[in-house]
Amino acid sequence: MSEPQADLLDEEQVSLLLEVLTAEDWDASVAGFTDNGRKTVDRLIAQASAGEPHDRTAHTLKGTALNLGAAALGRLAKELEHAPSADVVAQADHLCDLLERSLAALRTCKPIDV
């Protein structure tokens, strides 16, 4: 199930960050989340697929996503944090899609130049 575009981001969190970060810092934050977010999602899916504990990886994804304003991704990561491995595996495609859509939405946000 796909979240509507409007539900992807926490507009209040994003606005707060856009007020305090320069355009360069915002772009660096989104670029870092792009790289680390993909690695974290891949690790989460791999751990769940192997039946290994995945709660810490899901917790990391949750925190990073929510801090940057990727609300829908953060909510899903929170849900998966204590979910059985089979649920994580079943949500793998949705998780990857949600990450990519969240990243695309974050890239469209730009700090206001003063």
TrEMBL record:
GO terms for molecular function: protein kinase activity. Residues 52-103 form the HPt domain. One of its GO terms (biological process) is phosphorelay signal transduction system. Transmembrane segments: none annotated. InterPro entries: HPT_dom_sf, Sig_transdc_His_kin_Hpt_dom. Keywords: Two-component regulatory system. This is HPt domain-containing protein.
